């Protein structure tokens, strides 16, 4: 009889931090102030403390991935459980890749919490993937091929790192629904098929430095402390008690209230004038020390999508005159409060009376509708109409907010203040979906994805031809190229986040690694059980591991890395890398088989090493 082994050659140790979860089921749901979800056992303030729960996601192959979160319970060491989510919350996890969102601020009994459970309802899931440059609907099934219904994702905390709640300083729990680790996509079927094995990574401190988004109606403003209080209403909720959070601002905080931009004290005064009950949306950071939420940007009133006016979020695929063809985002309706991903293009009509703003620009900056060009990511406000079966947003008397836009491509040429790129994607969408006609000062000067010109100023001086890059900025005014794009940030992809995914099929393997010791993990690419997926992704670039000189070494890095072993009915997370390896060995010895591995981190091409911030192994 063959004895299961973790490695073909060695075993060993190392270290890091976290908690994790896996799914079972498939049946037919900062300075904090209550009220919010409050446990009945909280008789006096000394009995309980606050826990902030935020939701985020690691990148995956999805344009949208929307499911209903029915409940989120926490369990103490004595077996007591508390519910922290007052209402079913519909979340598009593909929209929280680059940020986290406050889900709830719950008041719960003091003590050490050892696990939690997230109940997902897939019965009304809406999932979209890209195939040949077009968004297509996908069907979600479980590992056995049957449609998913209710799935419970159990979270077991590391014995050395429980969630401790006490009066005073709020505790933090960040939940990362790792789409890459939890799903595989088959585009050969019609509709496309997504096989889901829900896997959750949770942390007491964020693994990645992401901005945090907070939404909800205004409660009060305190000008003396440059702060205001909101009722938390995550992911578009219009009601429910999700707790309260104090938001702190400073002289550089950018405000947009009812379409008017301002900064600092003037912006806070505009917010106070708007009054209690005004919808707000703030983006900022949460301090590790006192859990204070500091806002970088605040939107309020009709500047919040769906608050009094309809709104469309997406990228401009093409432009003809004053009509923008927008795709790849969401439609927020003011009449019913709904927010949903739109697969089909939406026509956005603009005019000389459309108010145009740009994120990060001084409040005194002047823009008009001509500044909105092809590729630009926009949030347009107006009135949605249906014309001949097509959705049209009339923004002629509304607003368009130009958002930072991400480019990915390969450097063709570098000169003083400029980059020429082989453009591959815009905000993750293949460049072939865009029509650049009219972007240039003449037809001959229209933007060309094969030689896309980026104005960089003093950025990117160390880049060389052939390097893969990621650029953040804004498209040049329509009809004014070249240059085609104005960069605000240029990142060499060698310093960008990568993900490595390997599958071993439904039967899995009992020997996934050729090396697993204190130097890290190396996947055995010679294993006959190797599945169809064995890829390394860095931005738009996808490489087959079999095409690399050797299998990359996965080396844990940082003081906040996550190690997760997920299996049906049992989930574990670990602070120590050695414990992570030992758990895999234990389950393999007991007859288990590794079915997939997903790691996220920075890939060093010269050393062929992925310095991993998280590793998830599903058995």
From TrEMBL:
Pfam families: DUF4382. It comes from the Bacteria. InterPro entries: DUF4382. Residues 49-182 form the DUF4382 domain. This is DUF4382 domain-containing protein. It comes from Povalibacter uvarum.
């Amino acid at each position: 009889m063959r004895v299961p082994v973790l490695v073909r050659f060695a075993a060993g140790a190392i270290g890091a931090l976290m908690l994790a979860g896996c799914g079972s089921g498939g049946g037919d749901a900062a300075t904090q102030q209550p009220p919010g979800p409050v446990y009945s056992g909280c008789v006096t303030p000394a009995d309980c403390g606050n826990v902030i729960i935020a939701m985020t996601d690691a990148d995956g192959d999805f344009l949208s991935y929307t499911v209903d979160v029915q409940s989120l319970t926490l369990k103490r060491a004595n077996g007591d459980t508390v519910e922290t989510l007052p209402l079913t919350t519909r979340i598009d996890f593909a929209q929280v890749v680059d940020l986290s969102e406050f889900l709830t601020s719950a008041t719960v009994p003091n003590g050490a919490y050892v696990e939690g459970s997230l109940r997902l309802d897939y019965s009304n899931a809406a999932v979209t993937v890209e195939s040949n440059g077009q968004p297509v609907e996908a069907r979600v099934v479980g590992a056995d091929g049957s449609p998913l219904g209710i799935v419970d994702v159990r979270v077991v905390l590391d014995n050395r790192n429980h969630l401790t709640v006490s009066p005073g300083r709020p505790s933090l729990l960040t939940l990362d629904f790792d789409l890459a680790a939890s799903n595989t996509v088959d585009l050969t079927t019609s509709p496309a098929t997504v096989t889901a094995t829900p896997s959750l990574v949770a942390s007491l401190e964020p693994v990645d430095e992401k901005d945090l988004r907070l939404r909800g109606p205004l409660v009060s403003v305190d000008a003396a402390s440059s702060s205001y209080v909101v009722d938390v209403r995550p992911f578009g909720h219009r009601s429910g008690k999700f707790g309260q959070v104090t938001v702190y601002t400073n002289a550089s905080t950018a405000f947009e209230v009812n379409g008017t931009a301002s900064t600092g004290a003037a912006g806070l005064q505009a917010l106070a004038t708007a009054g209690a009950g005004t919808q707000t949306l703030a983006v900022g950071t949460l301090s590790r020390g006192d859990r204070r939420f500091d806002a970088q940007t605040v939107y309020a009133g009709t500047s919040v999508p769906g608050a009094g006016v309809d709104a469309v979020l997406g990228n401009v695929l093409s432009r003809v005159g004053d009509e923008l063809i927008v795709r790849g985002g969401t439609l927020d309706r003011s009449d019913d409060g709904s927010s949903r991903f739109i697969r089909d293009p939406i026509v956005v009509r603009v005019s000389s009376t459309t108010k145009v703003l740009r994120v990060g620009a001084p409040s005194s900056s002047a823009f008009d509708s001509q500044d909105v060009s092809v590729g630009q990511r926009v949030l347009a406000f107006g009135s949605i109409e249906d014309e001949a079966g097509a959705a049209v947003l009339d923004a002629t008397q509304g607003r368009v907010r130009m958002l930072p836009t991400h480019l990915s491509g390969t450097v063709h040429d570098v000169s003083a203040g400029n980059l020429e790129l082989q453009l591959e994607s815009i905000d993750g969408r293949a460049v072939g979906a865009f029509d650049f006609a009219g972007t240039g000062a003449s037809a001959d000067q229209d933007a060309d994805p094969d030689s896309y010109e980026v104005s960089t100023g003093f950025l990117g001086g160390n880049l060389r031809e052939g390097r893969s890059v990621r650029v953040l900025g804004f498209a040049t005014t329509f009809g004014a190229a070249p240059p085609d794009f104005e960069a605000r940030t240029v990142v060499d992809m060698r310093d960008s986040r990568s993900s490595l995914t390997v599958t071993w099929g439904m039967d899995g393997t009992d020997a996934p690694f050729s090396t697993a010791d204190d130097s890290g993990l190396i996947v055995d690419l010679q294993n006959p059980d190797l599945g169809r997926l064995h890829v390394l992704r860095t931005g738009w670039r996808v490489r087959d591991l079999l095409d690399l000189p050797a299998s990359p070494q996965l080396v844990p890095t940082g003081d906040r890395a996550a190690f997760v072993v997920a299996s049906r009915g049992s989930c574990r997370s670990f602070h120590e890398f050695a414990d992570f390896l030992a758990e895999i060995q234990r389950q393999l010895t007991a007859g288990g088989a590794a079915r997939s591995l997903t790691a996220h981190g920075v890939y060093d091409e010269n050393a062929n090493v992925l310095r991993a911030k998280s590793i998830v192994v599903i058995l």
